[in-house]
Amino acid sequence: MIAHEDRLCAAVLEAFENPVEEQDCFQVANLVGLFARNGNPEAAAALRHSWAENDLAGETAIIALDGVPAAIEVVRRLGLLLIADPDEYADSLEFLTDDAPLREQVLSELLKLAPGDAAISAYLKQHERRAAEQAENEQLTDEQRQQQWIVHTSKFISENPAARIIELARQPGKGQHFLFSRFGRQAPDSERQAILQALASEPDPKVQRWLLGVFRAEGLHEWDDAVWKLAHSEIEDVRFAAIRALVLLKDDRLGEFARRRIGDGHISAKSCDAIQLFTNHYHPGDELLILKALERANTDTEGMHRLGLSALRVCEANPDTRLAQVAIFIYRTNPCTLCRRDIVEWMKDMDCLPDWIANECRYDALDETRALV
């Protein structure tokens, strides 16, 4: 639909050539690839010129555009990474292209080139090892898989104890968010407690934010005064991360805190976790506070997505029809088809789905939403 809109194509190309956020690069590169395959010469030139930059963003797009020669070059570059670091992860052929005949051609050509090309050889060795591991895993029982998970988790924690996580927080590098989050999910309470002890005496807000990232996915298991103090920080990023760590706990202080936070006038995308605090602390009447906060939010569509998703979690955890107006607001303002489907399902289950929404959902972009009505 947008391939013939010059203004939009130009904006996507600009985003590809001058990326701002690393998580956008892969999606933008794939859009550029679609434009190129649709006959846009500027997109094709941009992709061929710079696909290898930004962590190989565009590798799948260039293969879809240029076929076997591009795939060979992608594999060669991935192989060079493996030579430099044998533990590096390289995308599989199945990921690089979902075109089975093309994949077979690529593999055949790689096997011919491997004896004289160390990079291709390194890639194929990892490819063959993964295939063997996958075949072996398919034969495992549920009990064996559980045991395997325990072994992998123990290995990860032994290689990344709390001391190393604290060190990394003080000298963070690219792509470590996942490492901190995984540690928070898999580390025993004693290791998580070591992070909290370091956090209690850490003065640097940047380090505080990284350490709080340990509790991003799973949250705190019990109350911690240091995190509670940081939830009142004047630095927004620190405050946001601390509230996120507290959000799953049940404590009356959090409910009162949430009411003060969303009643203070300024509501941004980072107010989403303050709203989500109502998940375990909703009282009748809070729906008016939440609705007024959403209505005065000063943010863009992505911010409304984040705020709406938090409000959705509140609705799902509290089956109370007094939240119906909040649900309608979520439906009207949320750009996400999945959030709209979920809030429509909630209203349907609560028997408070307005006729106008039910009628509109008959034409929703998501077939699951259409099926609900």
Low-confidence stretches: none
Mean pLDDT: 91
Shape: globular
Integer tally of domains: 2
Percent of residues in helices comes to: 55-70%
Structure description:
The protein is mainly α and 373 residues long. It has two domains: 6-137, no CATH class; 160-372. Helix content is 69%, strand content 0%. It is built from 24 helices and no strands. The chain has helices at residues 6-17, 22-37, 41-50, 53-56, 59-66, 68-84, 93-96, 100-113, 118-137, 142-159, 162-170, 177-186, 189-200, 205-212, 225-230, 236-246, 252-261, 272-276, 286-295, 301-317, 324-333, 337-349, 355-361, 367-372. Helix 1 (6-17) runs parallel beside helix 3 (41-50) and helix 2 (22-37) packs across helix 3. The radius of gyration is 25 Å and the shape is globular. The two termini are 27 Å apart.
Q: What is the fold's blueprint, element by element?
A:
Elements: H1 6-17, H2 22-37, H3 41-50, H4 53-56, H5 59-66, H6 68-84, H7 93-96, H8 100-113, H9 118-137, H10 142-159, H11 162-170, H12 177-186, H13 189-200, H14 205-212, H15 225-230, H16 236-246, H17 252-261, H18 272-276, H19 286-295, H20 301-317, H21 324-333, H22 337-349, H23 355-361, H24 367-372
Helix pairs in contact: 1-2, 1-3, 2-3, 2-5, 5-6, 6-8, 6-9, 11-13, 11-14, 13-14, 14-16, 20-21, 20-22, 21-22
Summary of the model, kept short:
It is built from 24 helices and no strands. It has 373 residues and is mostly helical.
Structure keywords:
69% helix, 373 residues, mainly alpha, globular, 0% strand, 24 helices
